[in-house]
Write a structure and sequence with these properties.
By secondary structure, the protein is an all-alpha fold. It has seven helices and no strands. The chain has a domain at 12-97.
């Protein structure tokens, strides 16, 4: 088995998906409804059927506005697919700022090399003292290093 086979398999799936989209353009509505719309499906659809895309996006926008006025809110996966299709965030969590903020909570802070550690301000020393069950492995390691000093 060569290293190029998985890549070829991916290309074949992309090709089959594009052929399916060309033969059945309205299947994109099923993908939106199921909440599994992909970027490649959007690219294929908008490239092959730009006029149909414009018509569908107008109708969907009208429908979304009417639903919002009634107080109806579709499930998260549907809002995500609709946002991708309409190229506009239908939920505040789909904005670039919200995505960056969510991703930054999982990013490990990188301490600049050659600088002394930042000292705690008065009255905040207890903030770092929480159960070791809730510490990440990096926090536990840092705690052990400080304890061993």
């Amino acid at each position: 088995m060569s290293a190029s086979q998985p890549n070829d398999h991916h290309k074949e799936r992309e090709y089959d998906s594009a052929i399916h989209m060309a033969n059945n353009p309205l299947t994109i509505l099923n993908n939106i409804k199921k909440g599994d719309l992909t970027i490649s499906q959007m690219q294929h659809f908008t490239a092959m059927y730009p006029e149909l895309y414009n018509q569908l996006s107008k109708k969907m926008t009208e429908h979304v506005i009417k639903a919002q006025l009634k107080g109806d809110k579709p499930n998260y996966k549907l809002r995500q697919s609709l946002s991708m299709f309409l190229k506009a965030p239908l939920d505040s969590s789909f904005t670039p700022q919200a995505i960056q903020a969510a991703q930054s909570t999982f990013a490990q802070p990188q301490a600049p090399q050659g600088q002394a550690p930042v000292q705690n301000k008065k009255g905040t020393s207890s903030l770092g003292k929480f159960s070791k069950d809730y510490k990440t492995s990096g926090q536990a390691l840092e705690g052990r290093k400080q304890r061993d000093r």
